[in-house]
Amino acid sequence: MTNGNRFLRRASALFLRTLFMTMISAVVCAAFAADTAAVVPDTSIPKLTKPDLAKVMDENDTLHIKKHSALGSAALSLLMPGAGQLLCRKPVKGALFFVAEGISIGVTVNRLWFYNHNTIPDEDSANSLYSRMASTYQMHLSDSAKDTTAWKTWKADSLPLVNAAWANKAYQHVSTMDTRFTVQQAFAWCVGIHVFNVFDGLQSSGKFTDDRPRNPGVAAALSAIPLLGLGQVYNGSLSKTGLLLMGEGCLAYMAWNNQTLLKECEKQRTALLDTVRLYNKNHPAENKTAQDLGYQTTIDNWAGQHDQVFHRRNAYLWYLVLLYFYGVGDAAVDAHLHNFKAKMRLQPIAGPTASGRMQVGMNLAGDF
């Protein structure tokens, strides 16, 4: 239980630090939005000549989006997932964030309960069994009646049992690491969803939505900095920023955890091979193999565990690489199409043609 309580304290400290950093980011973004003047369209359109029509269309082509308090939306989302979206009158999105974070919290609590009530006791039991068997074995090795037939029989029968207890101890140690990483990864997704929720709350306020032109090259270069989503911040797409922060951060953490497990599996397999080599070094006349000493099955098991973790780590790395390039491409495309409404203009046509005939229609003009 001591390990579980220590993990709870560390997880709580990490969660509070993450909330604090998210709150600071939200306040900065909200302050930036407060300094940005909203464009109020001129709804009174006077009678204009035909050459002035395109100019009027451009001036009144600004995005008309109802804006809410960015600071209030971010603060509510920080306190309760989905609350900021409700403030901005987006109840479906708010409900999705509330349900998603509730599920992630439930999974984290379930994994933590399993870790405390099953994994840790199993490891303690394996360690205790190995300690007792190793102690008994070492005690009998110094028995004065050794080198007798009965003693040699006992040694031959006991050594595989001690080796099996040691292999089980090592397996339970790695299993405990794997379960602990599962708890931490579930908690990481919980934090990631909450951060995504806060950034989406800022986006939902409408303070960061405009049709000012963006430079695709700058957006792509900023987005090329991993794990930050700066290209999306440059474009004003804070919801996508939160999505990339959550996805890239969690996938990188999961790949790192599996890399740690990979090293541990290799360490255990190497230790067994070193044990076989050491035995043959101390008993050169016997020339035992791993199969003769009862280690071959355990070595094969560790090799299989190593391959399984190896493929799992590579899968997370591939997901991370794909998400990274998606972020770069999305930032460039989003910047190019950011003022799409201003570039694509639909203009009415009404009046006489050069031949004197009347025409009525619509003209679609593009500027790329």
In short:
It is built from eleven helices and two strands, in the order H-H-H-H-H-H-H-H-H-H-H-E-E.
Please give a handful of descriptors for the protein shown:
368 residues; mainly alpha; 2 domains; two-stranded antiparallel sheet; 11 helices; 5% strand
Structure description:
By secondary structure, this protein is mainly alpha-helical. It has 2 domains: 1-37 and 66-209, no CATH class; 247-343. The protein contains 11 helices and 2 strands. The chain has helices at 2-34, 53-59, 70-79, 83-87, 91-141, 149-204, 216-223, 230-235, 238-282, 296-336, 340-343; strands at residues 344-352, 358-366. A two-stranded antiparallel ribbon has the order 1-2. Helix 1 packs parallel to helix 6 (149-204). The longest helix is centred in the middle third of the chain and has 56 residues, at 149-204. The relative contact order is 0.10.
Topology (elements, then pairings):
Elements lengths: L1 H33 L18 H7 L10 H10 L3 H5 L3 H51 L7 H56 L11 H8 L6 H6 L2 H45 L13 H41 L3 H4 E9 L5 E9 L2
Antiparallel strand pairs: 1-2
Helix pairs in contact: 1-3, 1-6, 3-6, 5-6, 6-9, 7-10, 9-10
